[in-house]
Amino acid sequence: xxxxxxxxxxxxxxxxxxxxxxxADCIAYDSVxxxxxxxxVCGAKNCGKSTFSRYLLNILLQRYKKVGYLDTDVGQPxxxxxGFLSLTVVDExxxxxxxxxxxxxxxxxxxxxxxxxxxxxxxxxxxxxxYDYYQKEYCLFGKSASPAKVGLPLVVNTPGWVKGVGYxxxxxxxxxxxxxxxxxxxxxxxSKNLPCGAFWLDxxxxxxxxxxxxxxxxxxxxxxxxxxxxxxxLLRDVRIMAYFRQCFSSNLNITTIxxxxxxLASHPPYExxxxxxxxxHLHCQVPGSEIFYSLNATIVGLAVSSERTEDLPWCVGLGIxxxxxxxxxxxxxxxxxxxxxxEKVNLLLQGFIQIPTGLLQVQGCxxxxxSANVLSAS
Amino acid sequence: MEALLGFKEESTDYDQLVxxxxxxxxSYSYKLVPWLSWDEWLFVDESxxxxxxxxxxxxxxxISAWRSxxxxxxxxxxxxxxxxxxxxxxxFRKDLSNDALDNCRADQSSDASLSDEMLAMLxxxxxxxxxxxxxxxxxxxxxxxxxxxxxxIGIPRTLIDxxxxxxxxxxxxxxxxxxxxVKALDWLKYYYxxxxxxxxxxxxNETADIRTEIRSKFHELAFCLRVKNTPPSVSSKxxxxxxxxxxxxxxxxxxxxxxxxxxxxxxxxxxxxxxxxISISDSSKLPVNxxxxxxxxxxxxxxxxxxxxxxxxxxxLLLALLNAALDMIETQEAVLFETGGVRTSSDHRAEILQVExxxxxxxxxxxxxxxxxxxxxxxxxxxxxxxxxxxxxxxxILMELLRKCLVLSASANNQLMDSAVHLAQLTGDNYLLxxxxxxxxxxxxxxDVTEEDNSLKHSTNxxxxxxxxxxxASEKLEMxxxxxxxxxxxxxxxxxxxxxxxxxxxxSWNPCPIGMLPRAVGSSGCLPVLxxxxxxxxxxxxxxxxxxxxxxxxxxxxxxxSDIQLLDNRCVKKLRETxxxxxxxxxxxxxxxxxxxxxxxxxxxxxxGEEELLAIKSAVRIWxxxxxPAVKIEPHTKKSLL
Lengths: 378, 642
Prior knowledge:
heterodimer, A: alpha/beta, Rossmann fold, Elongation Factor Tu (Ef-tu), domain 3, 2 domains, 6-stranded mixed beta sheet, 9 helices, 14 strands, globular, B: mainly alpha, 3-stranded antiparallel beta sheet, two-stranded antiparallel sheet, 25 helices, ATP binding (chain A), CLP1_P (chain A), Clp1/Grc3 (chain A), nucleus (chain A)
């Protein structure tokens, strides 16, 4: 890492072992540019997949102007709030490796849950759709395109669910994408790791394969790589709040959750006629008479449904349905998505991305869904 | 973590995810629930255990909506599951009356295919989920065995055994799990449904109890303030009860809490209290006896302090109070008008007196409270406001109040006329004020006539004259307003012209809790009505046939059959039920509260077609002040219909 003119390490808490920088360099430099490298990063929970992916992005950006980033970790996505699967085109180095940054993705789909377990088939279809889009737009330039055009390298970050159904999903993903590089991060607890070798390939496979196995960067006093414990739920809530923080100008002084909750409750929402949008729950059957009971005060994906039913609805962001006026026939939505983009939105996708309770508790303005007198038994 | 994304929240505060309500009597905490109100919960409680299949079905529907919100308590989920299985079990069907059986026969045929094994499997799964789900929540770290943990919360032993048998051994027999399911339901009622019902504040109390509670809180507040404001030497008797600031805030908090759930009761109780205070001060113009020790009587001045304190917390109160007073005057006058000849004169006098008291109360309210001053156009720049800007009333609302007041003052009500003038002053509109002053002098000259000749017959004539002059005046008032609003209207229609936009930023927005709708004033918000049938029919149709709709909406292609529907989608008909006394089909003061294409008919919103609209328009006349008109037709109705 020191060999190249890497900018000063601005995240001193992050330690990049030599093994990691070798792996990243190998992907970025010891590969042909056409077809561009497609690297999938996988491994158990909290082993450092996201950190390595971020690091790899930065290294690739030294050779390429732009790098694609396909995020398949619905629980803790890199550039989008939880519940999204997205393809982002990154064109600048992320200096701070500790913090995930919100970026507007090139394309995203709202899965509407923080784990693929609710619906593995849909989850995989969404990922394949995003990958197909990447292939179409950034790799396969038709015959008309200039041959000088270089394909976009792709980094794929995966969720840490590597056992049972999670393993099957990962194998399906690896088979579908057929990456040029697979980075497998191992931890000391063998039982938690993915199987050795090219576990996703059938035995008779003989194609090109770069499997890089590295160890987790975090190590304890016995030199064992350990997991970094994270409070996943808290992290998700913070990501969601950071997302809605974007409704307000960055020079507005909002530093605490309380302040954010307060300005959100006062923020003039968008109003959209109920008759001009569709409402769909991604994981539940909601009886027709109950849709507003289901929708009120929830987080929804703002999607554009296309005329062709077989196309998946691309999503442009998240919204909070902050109120529904059935008499006026209006739904009130808070979202940082700019007005111009919003205009195309005609579909509200409900899922199980829960609104952070911190946003519902405003002094003197507590949401009715935060109730007192609830039996602890429930 | 704290540095993450710039949120420096004290993590302890957030980790708890439950905040405790400061200085409240019980140690409440807030929890995320899927229901909007306890009424909704009570509805499900009642329907779920009802013997009517329709009620049970409606409970199931609501529970599936709750499930879709992702925070359904497991006890509710399991209760619903067991009841649903019972509905599929022929054993329980036999218990139904013949009628009910007939009702369900249609879908029974499909259930008949469920074998005993499948039924047993369903029961077993529900029971396993009950035991695991509930025990997991309550199980302490030290309690290793599920049985011990289950015992602690009194789950019948049978259920624990079935969980064990079902998971690890043979599937228990249908008879066993069936009777266990009945036990499970009983236990769920005992463990969750009944205690939760009891824990709901004010549940089961009659309205009278709530009113008593409100009244006593108001008196507490009044005394608390009195003690606070009396020099210590005088109040030696009540020294030990000296209202501390803490007490004061506590009482205020509970009042605000009451207002949140029972706003109309709070307003009517307060109005009653104030009327009482006025009539006492009216009847005993004798030397004020409040100085004789701590009397129970609370003077109007003391109430003023109470209202000020309360409306600082709940700014909408004052407006609600004013509106309630006007409504009461209106009903009283209607009674006077209709039964004038029939009633005995003493009754009549009492009613007249009541109106007088109400009017003077209204005048007193208008005159005494600063909170009514309208705020200047609030800049929409998103700032963190220290809520001071939100406490004032917008000018439009003040105008609405003024109009109502003016209409009522038509019946020679001097005090209301004065109040109207005062309100006009508050709006800061000099032209309007001038007009009103002229009107006021006209009314008072008419009044002189009335006072000279007290016969009722004569005065009705005068009333008629006044009616005319008043409606003339209101029309003028309308014109003034139109002129004022004209610039805005032009801007708006410009905006609307190019408005194929689905997404529009709400024009005026009062802060309110997420999940509620804003009130005119204040930030308490009001609960929305979420029933689907309140939504225009067209929506349900549209939701039913998505693709067609999209074709219509996007490409503009018209199918002959959907022409009318298309019209409904496209045209923004702005019809609205109003409370004012005149109808204008030219330009009108715009309100943000328009209801597109719908009309409140007999309390129900109904879709209105073009022809109906025209019929209504031609039938609309200006009514005398005692009657309310049905509709007001908004200016762009005509335009948008074209």
